Amino acid sequence: MKTPAFWYRSHPSLLARWLAPLGWLQAAVVAARLRRHPVVSPIPVVCVGNATAGGSGKTPAAMALEALLSEMGAQAHFVSRGYKGHAAGSLRVDPVVHDARMVGDEPLLLSAQAPTWVGKSRVRSVLAAALAGARCVVMDDGLQNPFVAKSLSFCVLDGAVGIGNGLCLPAGPLREPLAAALARCHAVILIGEDETGVLAQVPQGMPVVRARLVPGPEVSELRQGQWLAFCGLGRPEKFFGFLRTQGVALAAVAPFADHHAYSGKEMAALHAEAVRLGAGLLTTAKDMARLSPELRVGLSVLSVRLVFENPDQVRTLLAKGCCVS
Predict the structure, then answer these.
(1) pTM score > 0.85 for this model?
(2) What is the DSSP pairing of strand 299-302 with strand 91-92?
(3) Cα–Cα distance, 188 to 58 (Å, whole number)
(4) What is the DSSP string of 222-258?
(5) By three-state DSSP, how is residue 79 classified?
(6) Which domains does the chain carry?
(7) In this structure, are strands 116-118 and 91-92 parallel, antiparallel, or unpaired?
(8) How confident is the model at residue 273 (pLDDT cuts 50, 70, 90)?
C-alpha cells in the first residue's frame, strides 16, 4: 500500500473527515485488543514501536539499541513478526537459506547484526530466543502487540512529519491515538528535528532521546554520479529527500508501495529507464533484501544507520529496563 498524501497534511482534508468514524473504530479495536493479559518473558524485552503506520525509522532504531546492548555486554536477539513473510511457527532467520518471501525484508537486515527470530507468535519467538541464550530481546515493532509484556518500550517519532493529520487509520496514519501509545512507553526516540511540534504531545517528564540518520561511507562515491533512485517504503519521499540532502544527484525517482515485491519485468523497465537517462540504479538495503540475487545485478545501495545524540542517556534507560550495566 502507498501512503495516502492526505495523511500528512497539517489539517484533515474533507476525505479524512469522512473517514474519521472508521478511525474511531480502529482506535477502539486496538484499545480492546490491548486489554489482554500479556505473557511475562523470562528475559527483558525492549520494544521499539510507533503510533503510526510505517516509515518512522523503527528498524534503524532497533539496530542502534541492540548495538548499545552489545557494548554493555548483554547478548540481545531481535524478534520480529516478519511482515509479509510466510514462515510457519517461530524460526531463527538464516540469510543464506531464507529470503524476504519467507521471513520478511526487515528480519533479513536485522539478522546481519544479531540473531533474529520471526513468527506469528511473538511469545514463542521470545521464548525461543531465551532458550537459545539471549539475555534480552529487542522487539522490532510490537507496541500494539498485547501478548508479550515489555520491560522497556520506545515510541519512535519522525520529526519531519510527526503524526500527520492526527487521525487514526484509514483517515490518517495513526494506529491508535498518540496519547494512548505513549501511556505504555518509557521514552520517545525523535529522529531529526521536531518540524511539526509533535513533542508538545509528549507527557512532561518522559525522556526524549534525540537521534538522526546518517549515510554509510559509500555516499562519497554515490555523489560522483547521476542516479535513478527507487524504493518501496512507507514514505518513499523520505529516502529521496535524504539522498538529496546528502548531495546525491537524482535524475529521476520511482516510488513503489511499502514492502513491494519487485518482478523481473519491473526491474528490466527500471534498468532501461536508467540507461535512457544515463544514470545508475540506486535503492535501499531494505529493498535490496526483497530482490532475488539475479535481480540485484547492477544495483547500488545507500545504507543508513541511526545515531543517538546522547548515547549515555540511552545506556541509562537500557540499564534500568534490562538490568544490565
Answers:
(1) yes
(2) unpaired
(3) 12
(4) HTTSEEEEEEESSSHHHHHHHHHHTT-EEEEEEEE-T
(5) strand
(6) 33-213+306-322 (3.40.50.300), 217-302 (3.40.50)
(7) antiparallel
(8) very high
